[in-house]
User: Fold this.
Amino acid sequence: MGASRTEIASTETPAPSRRPKLSAAAPVDPGFAALRRAARAAIVIPPVLAFTIFVLHGGQNVIFAVFGCFALLVMSDFGGQRWARAVAYLTATAVGALLVTIGTLVSISAGLAAAVMFVVGLAIAFSRVFGGYLAAAQTGMLLSFVIAVSIPAPASAIPARVGGWVMAGLISTLAGVFLWPRFERVMLRKQAAKACLAIAHLVEAMRVNDGELPRLIEAARHAERAAREAYTATAKRPAGPTRRDRAFVQLLTELQRIVDIIERPFQRPRVSERPCLTEGDRLAAATVAALRGSADVLTGGTPPDLRALDEARDAHRAALDRWAAEQLRAGRPVDEVLDGLDVDHTLRVVGYIAVALGTNAVIAAGRQPDETVSLPITAPRLEGVRGTATRVVRTIRTHLEPTSTVMQNSLRVAVGLALAVLVARLLGLSHAFWVVLGTLQVLRSTALGTGRTTVQALIGNVIGVVIGGVFAILAGNHPLVMWAALPIAIFVAAYAATAVGFAASQAAFTINLIVIFNLISPAGWQVGLVRIEDLAVGAAISVVVGVLLWPRGARRELARSVAGFYRAVIAYLDRSFERVLGFQPPTGADPARRSVIQAAERAGEAFDAFLNERSATSLDPQTAGYLLAAGNHAILAGDLLDVIATRLGYQASGCPDGARSVRAQVRILLDGFSRLAGRLALEKEDGDIPVSQRALRAAALDCLRRWRNDEKAGRGALAVVMAGEWAQNLARLEDDLKEPVAQAVDAARTPWWR
Assistant:
């Protein structure tokens, strides 16, 4: 089966926009999230700064209070319901206080500070893989440690530093919870519910109104894309290891799969070939009802009746078996019987995905799924602390290896920040944390991207110094003018950080720093020159690290990760086909599936990194997304083959000759996927051999003839028929992959400086 070339849902919070130049276009601000964030910061930070200067009389707590608010309200800005949001802010406050304490203790030694910076940077950068609040907090938590470790201080300074940070945390918690909160999770569920309803209309039209299909396919595609885009644009996304978050992520993938399959069905039979079974109509109706029930439960309504859908699938399978037996006994030609068996194949697959989608919708809504339903393999089964811990361990195990894009990006960040701390401390720069912050701001996953953002950062900071310097000269020694300008500067800096281009955000941030530091300790426009000097040092470190550590970025790692994904898929499909064809007993859980899920997650992270690079390569995001979607569809084939053999009990032992014929074609099929994987891994793979559709059909026809003469051969014949169907669908998918694979290989071979 094929897949439309659309991007799949991401499980990582997207990086801020990195436009190559200043843009005059209107800022992109879904739900006015950046506007809310900037307004909060502009209201909260000036009083905090005034309190620390005039009441606490400055000292260590000023920097930690002001930049603590900036870290939590601008760089982190947690979402979710009020209670969850408050817990997230308070947890980040506690973690930040611990990081400030550790950073202060190791700040006395430049070498020790750099070493601990590496460990902390690696841990925080790696934690991004869990998504959700951990991803949202990453930059803010790094900033808390960077400030503490970059400014040397004795242990006696810890109370003042931690006090400033805790004050910032408590104030930020109140502001984040009560000042214009945006409840993203509710909005995401509503978007997913709209997609469920649009897909329900589409499934309903499959059997009754073929003329409406193109329009309904477009409407369903638009709805599921809108759901995924809303998910991607959300800062606090349900992408963590908890059961509900994992279920919602899986639900988005299933929405896309259903539209993909209906858009490119397995068979387009003539009306005369339809078995016209009442059970088929009931299956379609149960599928539509389950999709609508999934929409209801996502918006607080009644859960879908998945047991009815499960029973409808079983009844339809039994009815198809009876129909085929009756037609064969009546003397109908076996080729017509085979075509009739293929007619409802697409509906059966959509019904299976609807069970998975409904199960995940129930879990995502905080309900308990019906245990009498055969839960799909993809559903997160374990609940509570044990389930979360299990998913955390699995995620860490998946990415804790050198070839993981997550590990590479984490190491790149850790090395860059550690070097920045060491260089800044050895050079004795007055604002050492600006050096480290500069490294963090411009470091990208490719050397070319790092160089580009370095140029943008320097241009933006020069513009900021010019504007801020002129303002500082005009303001002179009039603090009231500076205080009046402070909320405006904070608002512009906070808004530009996520809603405007990178160079503009750097200019705004520099103006903001000039105003703040002139209020703390008047230095005029010269503070801007210090800012440029420190940024240049930090950017130079980023460039060096970017060139030395995986300079190609994600485009080569994407190809290699997808190659590993396809090889894991091959092993899983091999076991699944072997079970259906009767060459392996269908017993227990398959370890090959755990391996393929881990490989899929690694490939997904590489795809996220590729998207965030925003680099101009010969591989467009749609093609890259298609490579992953194809692998996910192959997993679906393996899952359904496993259901056929394990739960339904179909095995081809009653038709051994047909089983051997299909097995030979499956070997050719899997060899073809292996060649595609080899090409993606930049290995030489030649000599494509196509799967013989004629041989697969001949094997199915032979088994149906055997069934006509031997009633005991029925289930074996149907096992051969179903295995042949999936072999043909996967052969079509393999053929569709050749051009996208070629494009991915070209991008992987492109030199890093291009």
